[in-house]
Structures are given as structure tokens and as C-alpha cells.
Design a protein that fits this description.
Length: 347
Amino acid sequence: MAEALGTALGRIAASADPLPERALGLLVALRPAVPFDAAWLAFADPRRSSYTPLASLDLDDDIAGFFSGPAMAQDIATTGCDRDCLPMSPSDHSYPSSEHLSTWSDCLTPAGIHESLSVALFVRGSRHVGFLTLLSKSRSVPSRTMRHRLAAIAPMMAAGIDTMPCLLATTRLARGVTAGTVLRDDGLTEVLPGLDGDPLLAVGSPILDIATQRLGDGLLYSSFLWPLGGPFAPDGHARITVVAAPDDVPDVLAGVVLVSPAPSTHGLTPRELEVLGLVVDGCSNHEIAHTLIVAPRTVAAHIEHLLTKLDVSTRTTAAVRAEREGLYVPSVPGSPYGDPGCGEREN
């Protein structure tokens, strides 16, 4: 039975099904091995001490709604069920759960639930990805066998709801990725395994601000260039790619930001790339000159050169090509050029 269950859970975890479907499949596969009257499986966000429901079986709507609120998260923390340990039951506590925990006193006990077996789900024993609770109307304390069986299964359940594999899959959208991070909806980041540690993606980086804005604008995929070694790009440029998280990933994970080598810049100099970026922003020659503190005729010369190098005839076409090929160098507040605040693009 254990071997068959492991095979079933492994198949579900490795499937390309949407996360809620995988989560429900895991519960269905689990039930014969660790019987329950109802079950709840949720995605864990340790930073917020919150849980996002992924799937449930035979769970009353009122209970499901209660579980999604702050009281459930508080009781999980109070009882230590958010730790990497053996599955826990209310009988493990030195106090009556129905008197001291609102989850029981206000929700489960009135609904006729008397026992449960709960376990935090960790990937490789370190990354907290979820929480599983199995509910029972029986007053019998879960057996040691059931606890150890669920403990053995927990890593496979964790793998089945882990969002990282699909986020890592986005790295295939950019060539030669050297670094990356997961961008949360609160502006913080999470490690993208094997790709962390680049200071370009440290919290507070203007790159992350730009990425957040692009994701907020609804862009599923976009890329731009970032100067290395300083605003005048003495060390060239890196390509920054921003990819929105798949629809089935919990909303707290907004997307992925990747660093890779710059594409061909068609011989454009760092200054011409700066001018091209301001053209993409919709700046007129006068506005570009004001932003870069140069003469308008100098801007005109730069634009003439970049049009020739990009083999286009208008600045609008140049802007479109820059966006399509990721040649855009954004201006950000605090840079030597500041926020251009440009108006409509010129043709």
C-alpha cells in the first residue's frame, strides 16, 4: 500500500495540472492510507503567518471560511503546528483545545469534529510550503501508526503543492540566466533556488521597483537593459526579464525577475541606449536634452545614429523595436537623469 501511495503521490506532484487540481488529487490519494472525515490543504506564507486554501474534501463551507481567517493561523502558531515535526493532535496539548483555541471552541467542536491530525509541510526539511489538517468526528486519539504514516507521506504532499518548480520553469524564457528571484506582492523577495545572491536583485533595488510596476500593469512578460558598474554602463549592460507567476500560483507570489547577459545592442553606445530609452518613454528631443543636460542638436544626432543602427525610419518604430527586443534602458528616480516625466511620443 505504501509503495502504491508513494507512486500515486509522486505522479500527482510531477503532473502539469494546475495547483488546485494537484492539491485535490493529493487529498483523494491520501484518504485510503490515512482515513479522515474532512481535510484541508493550504499554501503557507511564513512571512505573513498566513495560509491560502488550495483544496479541501468534505469540509463544511463555514469551517472552510473559518480556516481561511486569522484565527486559524494564530492557533497553528500557538500550538506549534507550523514547525517541522511529527503530525500533531489536540490530545498532545496540556490544555483542552475546545476551551483555549478559537478554531475548536468557535468552529470545530460545534460542528461535531472531535479530533484532528495536522502537519506542516516542508520541502527538504527547510522551506515551509504548506499545511495539512485531517479532521475526524471520532473521539479516538490518532494512533502512532497513523502519525508516522502521515509523517512519511508529508514530504510528498509538500512536493505536490510546491510552487517553486513552475516558477523555476520561467527561467527557460531567457537565455543564459545567471541570477533570479521570486518577487512577492509586498515588494519583498524569496529565493529562487540556485539563482540567488546577485546584488542587482537585493531588496530595495530599483530593478525590483520597475518589475513590480510592470507586473502591476498586467504585463505577463517584459524585459529591459540595466547598466552595470554605474549609470554610464562602464561594465556594459545586463538583461532583466520579468515574468508574471502562473495564474494558479497563490497571489502572494507575483512573479520572477531574472538576470541574463544582454542581447545584441546593434552597436548602440550606452548614450544611444539612454536616448532610446527616453524615446520609449515618449520624450521629445527637447525633453531628452533637458533630462540628459545636453544640447537638442546632440540629441538629434544620437537619434539619427540609433535609427540607422536599428535600420528603422521613425522614432516610433525604434521604440517598438526596443521594447520587442529588450533594448529599453529605463530612467528611474535618483539616477543622474531622474524621472524624465515625458509626454506623448513624437513620430
